[in-house]
Design goal:
By secondary structure, this protein is of the alpha/beta class. The chain has helices at 17-31, 87-97, 109-115, 131-137, 163-176, 178-188, 213-224, 232-239, 243-254, 258-275, 280-287, 292-303, 307-314, 320-329; strands at residues 5-10, 37-43, 49-50, 56-57, 61-62, 69-74, 100-105, 123-124, 142-143, 149-152, 155-158. The strands form three sheets. The protein has a seven-stranded mixed sheet, with helices on both faces. Helix 7 packs across helix 8 (232-239) and helix 10 (258-275) packs antiparallel against helix 11.
């Protein structure tokens, strides 16, 4: 008989409910197909917690009482990125790390692992919105902002919220094989492997005005007119500096290269146009890609999804046949 696999969820006040419920449902569903995951919930104090949706969540006891676990899951919460991670929470994670085969974080739960020192020298990810903060706050962590989940020597971190479901499915597949995991995915009506990385979900680039007035004029021009044929040479000529000096300015104030900045602005502009219902060819011209094929290559390389695939996922919650029916009714 399959041995029991204890899975312990470390919870705390303000924990994101879907970060707990999503992975827990994957493990529970796997049990219907022959797995033997034993789910339990622990808080640092052993007291019940209140989740992000206001639901009071009972626990099985304090984290210190967990003698051994196959998997420990640390979910996220909004306050983990606005204030210091509570010391009792990081201490609980340190303790459990030594008592489990694999330690997992969902979304901003990575900040708990980082605060506990578990991610030092390791690769990790988190919600796309907070990846830069994680990298800035914990210099020893190698943050991979586009990944849906990252495994590094028994420590596994996932991207934001629903990516915890993707990660839990991957863990089930590791434990029981692809067929059982596929059955779980089918029953829960989710992807076995979500197409693309989390960059496809990210908000437009928030451009901080550069301190240098000349650089600001170049940045403003790219943001306002991404369709122009911007190059390092043309931008350098615009502000009266050499291309090499322009590159130094971009690196110092924007943390990137001129070419990468232009590409990111064009991607953001294209995403906005596709969101509004524009066609791929029209979007490619308006965003400065020149051709649909050039835009497709950039989208696949940077977002892991084609422009048409992106539009199908994000333009509307309605299915195409529903849109057609609505148009016919009008």
């Amino acid at each position: 008989m399959e041995p029991r696999r204890p899975v312990v969820f470390v919870v705390f006040d303000g924990i994101k409910m879907l970060d707990v419920a999503g992975p827990a449902e994957v493990f529970a569903e796997a049990n219907r197909f022959g797995a033997r995951y034993a789910l339990s919930y622990a808080s640092p104090s052993g007291e019940p917690v209140v989740t992000s949706v206001g639901l009071r969540l009972p626990v099985d006891g304090p984290a210190a009482d967990v003698a051994e676990a196959d998997t420990v899951v640390v979910s996220g919460g909004d306050e983990l990125v606005t204030r210091a991670v509570p010391a009792d929470l990081t201490e609980a994670v340190r303790l459990l790390h030594s008592r489990t085969r694999r330690l997992v974080s969902i979304c901003t739960g990575s900040f708990v692992l980082a605060g506990a020192g578990v991610l030092d020298g390791r690769r990790a990810t988190t919600h796309w919105r907070h990846a830069e903060l994680l990298a800035r706050s914990y210099r020893d962590v190698q943050v991979q902002p586009d990944a849906l989940f990252v495994e590094d020597d028994g420590v596994i971190t996932s991207a934001g919220v629903s990516a915890g479901i993707d990660l839990a499915l991957a863990l089930v597949e590791d434990d029981h094989g692809v067929e059982l995991a596929r059955n779980v995915a089918r029953n829960l009506v989710v992807f076995m492997q979500r197409p693309g990385g989390q960059s496809q979900f990210s908000a437009p680039l928030e451009v901080r005005p550069p301190r240098t007035p000349a650089l600001r004029s170049a940045v403003d021009l790219v943001a306002a007119q991404p369709a122009l044929p911007h190059t390092a040479d043309s931008l350098a000529a615009l502000i009266g500096v050499s291309p090499r000096h322009l590159a130094r300015l971009f690196h110092a104030e924007m943390g990137t290269t001129p070419a990468k900045f232009v590409e990111r602005i064009r991607i953001d502009h294209a995403k906005a146009l596709l969101d509004s219902g524009c066609g791929v060819a029209e979007t490619a011209r308006a965003a400065g890609f020149g051709s649909s094929e050039s835009m497709r290559r950039t989208f696949v390389a940077r977002l892991g999804v084609s422009p048409s695939g992106y539009r199908a996922r994000f333009a509307t919650t309605r299915r195409a046949d529903e849109d057609d029916a609505a148009a016919g009714a009008r």
